[in-house]
Amino acid sequence: MAAMKKEYILEGLCCGNCAAKIERDIGKIGGVSFAAVDFVSKTLTMEIAEGTTVNSLAAQADAIVRRHDSQVVVKENSSSYLINSNSLAISKFTSKTLTVISPKIPNSLPCVCC
């Protein structure tokens, strides 16, 4: 079974908290089998199930992004392609792992968007 991988640039994404909320909510859209937001590169990656209308999902994803941060501009990245979901391996990090490799950041950083 083949799936479509779509990538979008999230210009103006202001914080990791918004990125996490966007990732969570887009992952709940029917037809999206995987969603990830890389805050550092400001990239949204979605794996779309075969037979799903891409334009409809893109509009839903755009609405979710704007709900969490109305200043973000969503632009399609040209690196979208078919993938074989049987060979896709996704590593998951635990919060303990991330704590070990992440620098210490104060909890009181201001965020203008959330």
UniProtKB/TrEMBL annotation:
This is Heavy-metal-associated domain-containing protein. The lineage of its organism: Bacteria, Bacillati, Bacillota, Clostridia, Peptostreptococcales. GO terms for molecular function: metal ion binding. CDD domains: HMA (cd00371). The keyword Metal-binding applies. It comes from the Bacteria. The keyword Metal-binding applies. Keywords: Metal-binding. It holds the Pfam family HMA. Residues 4-69 form the HMA domain. InterPro entries: Heavy-metal-associated_CS (IPR017969), HMA_dom (IPR006121), HMA_dom_sf (IPR036163). It comes from Aminipila butyrica.
